[in-house]
Fold:
Amino acid sequence: MMEVYKDSQDEVKDADEKHQCAQTLQKGSLEEAGKTFTQTGNLETHMRIHTGEKPHACLQCGKSFTNMSHLKRHMIIHSGEKPHACLQCGKTFTDTSSLKRHMRIHTGEKPHVCLQCGKTFTQTGSLKTHMRIHTGEKPHACLQCGKTFTQTGNLEKHMRIHTGEKPHACLQCGKSFTNMSHLKRHMIIHTGEKPHACLHCGKTFTQTGNLEKHMRIHTGEKPHACLQCGKSFTNMSHLKTHMRIHTGEKPHACLQCGKSFTNMSHLKTHMRIHTGEKPHACLQCGKSFTNMSHLKTHMRIHTGEKPHACLQCGKSFTNMSHLKTHMRIHTGEKPHACLQCGKSFTATSSRKRHMRIHTGEKPHTCLQCGKSFTQTGNLEKHMRIHTGEKPHVCLQCGKTFTQTGNLEKHMRIHTGEKPHACLQCGKTFTQTGNLEKHMRIHTGEKPHACLQCGKSFTDTSHLKTHMRIHTGEKPHVCLQCGKSFTDTSYLKTHMRIHTGEKPHVCLQCGKTFTYTSSLKTHMRIHTGEKPHACLQCGKTFTYTSSLKSHMRIHTGEKPHACLQCGKSFTDTSYLKTHMRIHTGEKPHACLQCGKTFTYTSSLKTHMRIHTGEKPHACLQCGKTFTQTGNLERHMRIHTGEKPHACLQCGKTFTYTSSLKRHMRIHTGEKPHACLQCGKTFTATSNLKTHMRIHWKETFRWSSVFCVTSVWKDL
Structure:
C-alpha cells in the first residue's frame, strides 16, 4: 500500500515537469532537447505528425484529421454553417482566416508586396499571379495550339475556341456565349441598362467602346484623318462619308428629280420637299418642320437657349446667321449701303428701315389712335398700351412684361448677372438705378431727409422704414405668433424660429445657424479668436457668457444652488451634472457593453478599455496609461516620491492602497478570511499563499483515493 502511495506521489511531482517528444531528440544537435509540451494531451496530438495517425474521421465524406478542432472546422463545409461574421457588411465565413482576408477589403490592407514594382495585394495567390508579369512565366499551356497563359481561368476561356463550347446562355433569347462578360454585355439589350456613363455630360452607353467614341466630343480627339486634306474625324463612318467630297461620289439619288447626295440622311430630308412631310413638331406651339435642326433652332425661342456666343463681347444668339451679322459690329464691316446718302449697314433689314427716313414712309398705323410708325416692332409695343398685353413671360417665375428690355432686366434676378459696375469699388448691379443709389455711399449724398428729426438717407425705402420709429407702425406681422416688426428683414429672421431654417452655413464644418451673428461667434472655434478678455487675470474667451461664468471665480459668486443639499455652483451646467448624484441618472451609456456613467469624461475613460487606447505615456520609460491619475502614481516609481505617510509610525508609501494595508498592522484588522479553516489575513496575497496548503491537501487525498480504488479493483 505504501509503495503504491509513493508511486502516486511521484506522479504528482511529474505533473509539474514538461513532456518531451522522443522523436525530435533523434533529429540531431539542433533539437537535442526535443520539443516539449506542458500537457501529455498536446504531446499525444503532436506525435501524430510523426506517426501519420489521423483518428478523427468525417462521417459524411470519410476525410480524416489529426486534431478534433480541424475536423470541426471541416464539418462546417457540410453543415453550411458560417459562424464568423464581418461586423461591417454582415458577410459570413466558415473560417477566421477567411474573415481576416475579407476584412482587408474594408481596411484597405494589402500586406503582400511585390518586391520588383512595389504593388500590394490582399492575398498571396494574387501576388503569385502578378509576379508572372515580371518573370514572364506562363505555366498554363493549351494542348492544341501551344498558346500559354498566366492563369488557369484564361486557359479555360481560350479552350472554348477549340471546343466551340458556349456555356453562358441568355435566359431571354437563348443566345449563348463563350465568356460571361460577353453575356453581360448582351443582357443590356434586354434590360435597357446603360452602365457606362460619361463623367462630363452624364450620357450613358451600353458598351465601353461607344463611351470611348463619345468621349472624343469632350476631349476633341479626332483619330481618323483624311489623307487628302488632313481633316480629322471622331468616327470612321464620318471619314468614309467625307471622302466622297474628294471622289465626287454621290450614291444616294432622288427617284423623283434625280438629284443625288453623299449621305442617306440628306436624301431622306430632301424627299420631304416632294412629299410635303414635316415630321418634327414643336410640342409647345405645334409648329412643324422638315428637318430636326430647324426644330432645334425653333425650340430656342421657348427655352431661351442661345448657344452661339460672341467671343469678343459674350453676347449669345439662337442662330449662327444672327451671330455672323452681330460680328460685323466688332469687325466694322457694313456691306449694305444706302444709295441716297451712302450710309452703310450690317444687315439688309436695317437698310430697309433706314430708307424710310428719306421717303418719310410710316407704313405701320395704330388702328385705335391713328399714330403711325416706321417699324412694326414699334407699333406692336405701342399697341400693348391699349390691349394691356404683356407677351414676354419669365420662364422661371411666370412674371410678364410688355417689352423684352424689361424682361431682360428681370432675368438678371434669376441669372445673377450684374452688368452695371461701380468704378470705385467694383460692386455690380442689375440696373442703372441701383448703381446710382449705390454711388451715394461714395459721394456721401443723402437726398431723402426725415421731416421730424432731420436725419437723412440715401434711399426713400430707408426713410420709410425710419419713419416707423416716429409713428410706431409695425406693418409686418408674423402669421404664427402675431409678433410685429418695422422691417420685412426682421420678420424673415424671426420666421426662422418657426420654420427651423438655418441658412447660414459654416464652410469649414458644415454646421448651420439661424443668424449671421451666431455664425460669426461659431467661426471663432475654427479661427481660435477669443475677443472677450478677463480684466483681472487676462484670460480670454470666445463667448461673453463664458467670460461671465469665469468672473465668478474672482468674485466667488455661485448663483446656482442645489435645492436638495444646498451646494452652489458658478454655472448651470455644473448644477445639472451635480443633480445626477441625487437622481441617480447616468445618461452616458457605453455602446459596446451598456454600462452607464454620470459624466461624459467617465465614459471616455471607460471606452479606452474597449479600444485599448492609452494616451497618457510616461516620458521616462514609455509605459502608457488610460488615465492621468494612473500615470501620476506611476511617476512616483521614478521620482521616489511617497506622499502617503502613516500617522502612527511615520512610514511613507507611494500609493494609498499600500498605506491602508500597512495600517492594519497597527489596528490588527485582518479582513481577508479563509473559507475552509477560518484563518484571517491582512492582505489578499497572504490569503492566496495560505490557500495553497488546502489545494495540496485536496490534490494529495484525491490522488490517494484514486490509487486505493485501483488497488481494490486489482
